[in-house]
Amino acid sequence: MRPAYPQATAFARGCAIAALALAWLPWPTWAEPNARPNADPAGSPLWQAIHQELLGNAPAMFDNHVRVTGPAFAEDAMQVPIAFDASALGKVERIVVAVDRNPIRQVLAFEPMRARPALSFRFKLQEASAVRVAARTPDGVWHVGTLMVDATGGGCTLPGATRQNATWSTTLNRVESRVFPGFNGAGARIRLRVMHPMDTGLVASIPSFHIERLELLDANRQPLLRLALHEPVAENPIFSFDFDGPAERGVSVVGVDNNGNRIRAQVTP
Q1: What is the pTM of this model?
Q2: Cα–Cα distances in angstroms (integers) from residue 80 to residues 91, 147, 233, in the given order
Q3: 251 exposed, middle or buried (CB, 10 Å; 0-12, 13-18, 19+)?
Q4: DSSP code of 37?
Q5: How far is CA 265 from CA 174, 188, 189, 228, in A?
Q6: Tell me, which fold does domain 47-266 have in CATH?
Q7: Are the C-beta atoms of residues 62 and 114 closer than 8 Å to each other?
Q8: Which of 43, 79, 86, 151 is the most buried (most CB within 10 A)?
Q9: Tens digits of per-residue pLDDT, 129-175?
Q10: Which alpha helices (DSSP H) does the chain contain, by range?
Q11: Is the C-alpha dihedral spanning 220, 222, 226, 231 positive or negative?
């Protein structure tokens, strides 16, 4: 017996075929539950607290223009290399580096001033964590780059090598410096190494002892850049700064640690 409504039956059959075809299509990105606009790429429940602690009520957005590079796994949790470059943002006034799961979250603050908003250095990592690099532009907005680093841990709660062999006092605040050509010969790179134990205060019987401030000055004693350092910066820290123009003559480095010990040296051309 023929169906009473052949056109309706054909229509229903067509709808069923279309539904099956749609079922095989991938979900659009807006349907993903975690694909919120400007969501934390690390998915860290600590981000809101870190935002308030480090950036206050200032607006912040996750931004791939802040490039952060480092290892996926920290082979040495006391010397984790990291580099960042926020040049794609244009003018940058201040950069803050922090680690979500370190017992001391803030690592350093960098005012590039007459340098490029880029830096490479090493830090201590207590456990696997997101590392944040937040760059503030003149409009007051913080642009945040994120790097996930895995680790076996313990970088903030173990004594450094110079503490273990008791040699730190013989080299304290000695500065080594060198100037290199910039990328493809353009500009210049200044590399500094400052000898200091950078104790976190989290090791038994060893109080916090770290460099608090470093500045590069030109020949007229005017600042080229400033660094505010915290305990998670690695022992005997090495910093590499980039400049768009040639290295100036007469550049010097000055600084102080939290015990009032002064750092003064000329940068070797």
Answers
A1: 0.85
A2: 28, 12, 9
A3: buried
A4: T
A5: 8, 19, 17, 18
A6: Immunoglobulin-like (2.60.40)
A7: no
A8: 86
A9: 999 999 999 999 999 999 999 998 899 999 999 999 989 999 999 99
A10: 6-23, 47-50, 161-164, 168-171
A11: positive
**Tokens read off for 191:** 């590399």
- Quote the tokens at residue 234: 């690695």
- How is residue 250 written in tokens? 């007469």
**What tokens were used for 246?**
């040639």
Closest by CA to 252, choosing from 233, 231, 267, is 267
Residue 252, SS3?
Answer: strand
Give the model confidence (pLDDT) of 72-119 as tens digits: 999 999 999 999 999 999 999 999 999 999 999 999 999 999 999 999
- Give the C-alpha separation, 133 to 104, whole Å: 15
**φ/ψ of residue 17, rounded to 5:** -65, -40
